[in-house]
């Protein structure tokens, strides 16, 4: 029988630095195929995501629901699974916890981007948001970049303090702050990981800033002020996680920018040059990242 992994077992198979390495390998793998994902609206404002991907060895499908109304409740906003098959035989090999894969592979993608693009990768780090994605990014940047100082901004003090406690457990010096824009003056490393229902960052940012914006992954979602996006495009570099983001990057689309003109993470891995100045890494998600997680999980099999 294939292994059916819960959240903890899935996390154990996906160490952040090794997952970032696997993502980098996947970007150079010519056998990878990723069809367009299906996003089906659900009653009540949620969405069902069906996300397949394959390479020369594996075929995976991530099947998850995203329910924004669950924010602030005991139910997670993201629920579901990643099912992993042997591509040649069709045999199911593994079932991974979908929310854990989503959080960890998203943070690992940001980690890879920061390795390649962040002028000051050691931070201090500012995280806007205090949910699962924020926690994953704190863990990933601590493990993979050596971050030791953290500022947290969240809509609720309790969630910010909870994340602060977990971060202190990792050995970080942590401060919960109220003004994200003011914190930009001392934080060259920034992650926005919110429900993306409103602008949470207006700027201005430092000239050596690296901003990973991961909360907005549909055209109508937004975390960054339009003026900030336009300033980052004019003064520095904007990088997309994949070409699919041209249709999904709400932050950029609502700023009147054409995402098709920006390089992708694959371009960066393959040697695309960037210019000096601040960097905006706009991440919208891709089933290829889930495939990389499946590959990593099988490599890490006990």
UniProtKB/TrEMBL annotation:
InterPro entries: NAD(P)-bd_dom_sf, ODC_Mu_crystall, ODC_N. SUPFAM superfamilies: NAD(P)-binding Rossmann-fold domains (SSF51735). This is Delta(1)-pyrroline-2-carboxylate reductase family protein. NCBIfam families: PRK07340.1 (NF005603). One of its GO terms (cellular component) is cytoplasm. Pfam families: OCD_Mu_crystall.
């Amino acid at each position: 029988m294939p292994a059916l992994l819960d959240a903890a077992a899935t996390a154990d198979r996906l160490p952040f630095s090794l997952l970032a390495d696997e993502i980098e390998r996947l970007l150079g793998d010519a056998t990878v195929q990723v069809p367009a994902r299906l996003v089906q609206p659900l009653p009540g404002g949620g969405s069902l995501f069906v996300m397949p991907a394959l390479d020369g060895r594996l075929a995976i499908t991530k099947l998850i629901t995203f329910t924004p109304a669950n924010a602030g409740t005991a139910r997670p906003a993201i629920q579901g699974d990643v099912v992993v098959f042997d591509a040649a035989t069709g045999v199911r090999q593994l079932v991974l916890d979908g929310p854990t894969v989503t959080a960890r592979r998203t943070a690992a993608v940001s980690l890879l981007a920061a390795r390649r693009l962040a002028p000051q990768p050691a931070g201090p780090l500012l995280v806007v948001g205090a949910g699962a994605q924020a926690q994953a990014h704190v863990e990933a940047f601590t493990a993979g970049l050596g971050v030791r100082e953290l500022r947290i901004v969240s809509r609720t003090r309790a969630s910010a303090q909870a994340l602060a406690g977990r971060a202190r457990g990792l050995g970080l010096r942590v401060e919960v702050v109220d003004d994200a824009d003011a914190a930009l003056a001392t934080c060259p490393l920034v992650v926005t990981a919110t429900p993306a229902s409103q602008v949470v960052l207006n700027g201005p940012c430092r000239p050596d800033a690296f901003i990973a914006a991961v909360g907005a992954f549909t055209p109508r979602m937004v975390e960054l002020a339009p003026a900030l996006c336009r300033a980052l495009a004019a003064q520095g570099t904007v990088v997309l996680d994949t070409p699919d983001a041209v249709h999904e990057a709400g932050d950029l689309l609502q700023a009147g920018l054409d995402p098709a003109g920006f390089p992708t993470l694959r371009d960066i891995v393959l040697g695309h040059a960037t210019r000096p100045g601040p960097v905006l890494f706009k991440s919208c998600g891709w089933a290829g990242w889930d495939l990389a997680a499946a590959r990593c999980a099988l490599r890490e099999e006990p």
